[in-house]
Give the backbone structure.
Amino acid sequence: MKFNNRNVFISSSVKIGNNVRIGDSTVIYDNVVLEDNVTICNDCVIGEPRNEYYSDVNYQNPPTIIGKNSMIRSHSIIYANSTFGEGFSTGHRVTIRENSKFGKFCRIGTASDIQGHVEFGDYCWLHSNVHIGQKSTIGNFVFIYPYVVFTNDPHPPSNICVGPKIGDFSQVAVGTVVLPGVQIGRHCLIGAQSLVGKDVEDYQLVAGNPAKVLKDVRDLRSRETGKSHYPWPYTFDRGMPWDDIGFEKWKNDNGYIND
């Protein structure tokens, strides 16, 4: 089904599943796979060719896979040779460069820029205006809030590219900059407008410019309840796979024994 069938181009090599909807003024290049129940909204480009397309007469577009039940909102551009798991979604005007890999149920907010050659786990939620540099690695259940920047050049300008790495369940708050090669552990909380230039161990709260370790996140108390909020999966379940069963049961069923 197409929204209004206006100014739509779909390559003959595209594979389209059941109940796929494609919006007006959308271009879908060679070797794209749209699995069942995918919605591509108006003015999108899917499978945008890599740079070689413009200089190599023998260029062949590598595969791009959009997993089932995904939603790509208007004016988003997704480059070729990227894979997106089930339930992927974008906001408006999102750019995702080539060689990007996303797990299941990831969300990328409006006007975010993913520079490619990156890997995301499952249930990663990026809010609006996030910039992720190449070679970044993000674990599962990582939330990244607006105006966060992941950098990757330790001595700009150079030919070195080493992105940050973030462990499962960590949170990166508004306006934070993470410097090249920094490794952030599991269940960490990075405070707003921090400049993170050193590795962060598991369960740490860091904040400031430069960011410094303030305490173990498990020692934080909610002003409203007086109870510990971290690790957050025990107190937050909206949109999470442990909704209705609780994190304790879900983690044991899925091998997260140490969380």
